[in-house]
Specification:
The protein is an alpha/beta fold and 385 residues long. It has 13 helices and 14 strands. Strand 3, helix 4 and strand 4 form a beta-alpha-beta unit. The radius of gyration is 21 Å and the shape is globular. The protein starts with 13 loop residues before the first strand and ends with a helix. The chain binds pyridoxal-5'-phosphate. Pyridoxal-5'-phosphate binds next to helix 3.
Length: 385
């Protein structure tokens, strides 16, 4: 609970930002256990169980490795392990996180090309195919599943299939950090080579763990770049026996295991449906109170971006200061233009109704618009069916 008495009495901080997301009591309590020794059988069993469930969620034959770092560290590990200096690569850049792939490829001296698309839209598979046909030596393709800066979900299954039919050897690397749990991922079936995830997004675990799943195609072409902490080959060989190369964040693995067991019990496809419904409720609510969606289609199940009305530029600040409701503003070129409402991870239907109620109050105060109750009614109608 927040003890900030300048807020409305008893205001509790509630996270409506796309990471970190709310951490459920089961995960918090698991992380409060004594730290187990990472070379003990207890820990080996724990990390193997978590990896196995992550593998089921991602749809890959060999479970992902778990790294102790933020999501960007896992993205960096993919660039280090699967490209060489001068490698021709292609990045889809439709937002802040596409830009991050570009920067990482540049930092590691790849011969990187960028397919720039307008922020708020998704690339269409043909566009990518056309670009790839101009890059016959392209060895790796980097994309997001969910571009968190714009609230757009890219049609990854269709994109992967189009890319693969153009280039049989290319490595398809997908940043699924904000899509896992909210959107389906069938890595092997969709012939994707590297999937990257992070603990603080869909998993209800604090920041600090990241996941990298590796296909057989990728496993057969580790680069010979110098590397040490992020040596995925060594890490995977060790973790196949439950051994991590370095001391992992054991308490976070304890939390992850608790969350994953629970998510598995709910059922992964049911979780995708839950997120789709929450996203729809938020879109309908926003529209009912006169907010414009930022994305032009391909809406994410994980978060929704709305344009900030010109009279309500301070909305994010007000909702935090008054109610402890933490929404996210825009990143980069969208700073001051949009706000982002996350419904990713352990967010229930009443959380969403509460979040919408907060947005209504903030908008009412800023603009005097007659919005109170209208968004909540629209969202409730979605949840009632
Ligand atoms: C959150 C996020 C990341 C990783 O960010 P970190 O702050 O390094 O954990 C990367 N890609 C996407 C799409 C994200 O949403």
């Amino acid at each position: 609970m927040s003890t900030d008495t300048t807020r409305a009495p008893f205001a509790r901080e509630r996270l409506f930002c796309p990471g970190p997301t709310p951490v459920p009591a089961i995960a918090r309590m698991a992380a409060m256990n004594e730290s187990v020794y990472h070379r003990s059988e207890t820990f080996t069993t724990l990390i193997q169980a978590s990896r196995k469930l992550l593998g089921e969620l991602i749809g890959c034959r060999i479970p992902p490795v778990i790294l102790t770092c933020s999501g960007t560290g896992a993205m960096e590990s993919a660039v280090i392990n699967f490209t060489a200096p001068g490698s021709q690569t292609l990045v889809v850049n439709g937002g802040n996180f596409g830009e991050r792939w570009l920067q990482l490829n540049q930092a590691y001296n790849c011969n990187v090309h960028s397919l720039d698309i307008p922020w708020g839209s998704a690339p269409n598979p043909q566009q990518i195919v056309d670009k790839l046909q101009t890059l016959p030596e392209c060895s790796a393709f980097f994309i997001q599943a969910n571009e968190t800066s714009t609230g757009v979900y890219y049609p990854i299954k269709e994109i992967a299939s189009a890319v693969r039919s153009t280039n049989k050897k290319i490595l398809i690397v997908v940043d699924c950090i904000s899509s896992l749990v909210a959107h389906e991922m069938r890595m092997d079936d969709w012939d994707i080579d590297v999937v990257v995830g992070g603990s603080q997004k869909g998993f209800g675990v604090p920041p600090g763990l990241a996941f990298v799943a590796i296909s057989d195609r990728a496993r057969n072409q580790f680069s010979n770049r110098p590397r040490f902490y992020f040596d995925l080959k060594r890490e995977e060989a060790g973790q196949s026996k439950g051994d991590t190369a370095w001391t992992p964040a054991v308490t976070l693995v304890q939390a992850l295991n608790a969350s994953m067991q629970y998510l598995k019990q709910i059922g992964f496809s049911k979780l995708n449906e839950h997120h789709a419904k929450g996203a729809k409720a938020v879109r309908e609510a926003g529209q009912a109170i006169g907010l414009d969606l930022f994305a032009n289609g391909n809406y994410s199940n994980a978060l929704t971006a709305f344009r900030l009305p010109s009279e309500a530029k301070g909305l994010v600040k007000t909702l935090d200061a008054r109610f402890g409701a933490i929404f996210a503003g825009g990143q980069g070129q969208l700073s001051g233009q949009i706000f982002r409402f996350s419904h990713l991870g352990f967010v229930d239907q009443l959380d969403i109704i509460g979040g919408i109620g907060a947005v209504e109050l903030g908008l009412f105060q800023a603009t005097g618009r007659d919005v109170l109750g209208k968004g909540v009614a629209a969202a409730s109608r979605i949840f009632a069916t």
